[in-house]
Amino acid sequence: MTNHDSWWRERPDSSYLTAPHCYTTVPVAPEEFAATIAFYERVQGVRQSANLPLETGLTVATVGGFCLLTGPPEVLAEVSAVRAVVLHPDLDPVPGRLLAAGADLLRGPDPAPVGRALFARHPDGSVVEHVEHRASARDRSR
Questions:
Q1: pTM for this entry
Q2: Most buried one in 42, 52, 111, 140, CB count within 10 A?
Q3: Rounded CA gap, 125 and 15, in Å?
Q4: Please, which domain of life does this record's source organism belong to (predicted)?
């Protein structure tokens, strides 16, 4: 069983990626978080790869292609519009690519607990968080 109060990532730096990796976001009630993580581990045949309790009260867990989000109702309401998280090896070229493709930048790129992040509204209306991960003093393996 994983401690959902501790910060850990199996791979704290995304610069190794050769292509972006997309996670579907799934908001989860706090009392269902552990069971939901176990479900996504079972159905994908993988283990949870990160657990990130943030100062905002949000906790993020990644399992395979899913980014599970939990926290107080008001915090979940704030992030419920985000449809996906795209992890990039390098965030620098992403704003230009998004703008050239017709997306609107909503916020960022800004420093984030995981590295840097930006939020964009894609032409289809989807709000997507684009991130790059970089190691920090908080990182440790499980």
A1: 0.89
A2: 52
A3: 28
A4: Bacteria
Q: Break the chain into its structural domains and give their ranges.
A: 8-133
Coil, helix or strand at residue 69: strand
Topology adopted by domain 8-133:
2,3-Dihydroxybiphenyl 1,2-Dioxygenase; domain 1 (3.10.180)
What secondary structure letter does DSSP report for 73? H
Q: If you write DSSP's letter for every residue of 7-34 in order, what string do you get?
A: -EES---GGG-SS-EEEEEEEE-GGGHH
Distance CA 67, CA 25 (A): 5
Contact 40, 66 (CB under 8 A): yes
CA–CA gap between residue 90 and residue 70 (Å, rounded):
27
**Residue 114 corresponds to which tokens in the numbers above?**
């995981």
Q: How far apart are CA 44 and CA 40, in angstroms?
A: 6
For residues 140 and 61, give the distance between their C-alpha atoms in angstroms, rounded to a whole number: 15
The Cα diameter of the chain in Å comes to 44
Whole-number Å distance between alpha carbons of 68 and 42: 15
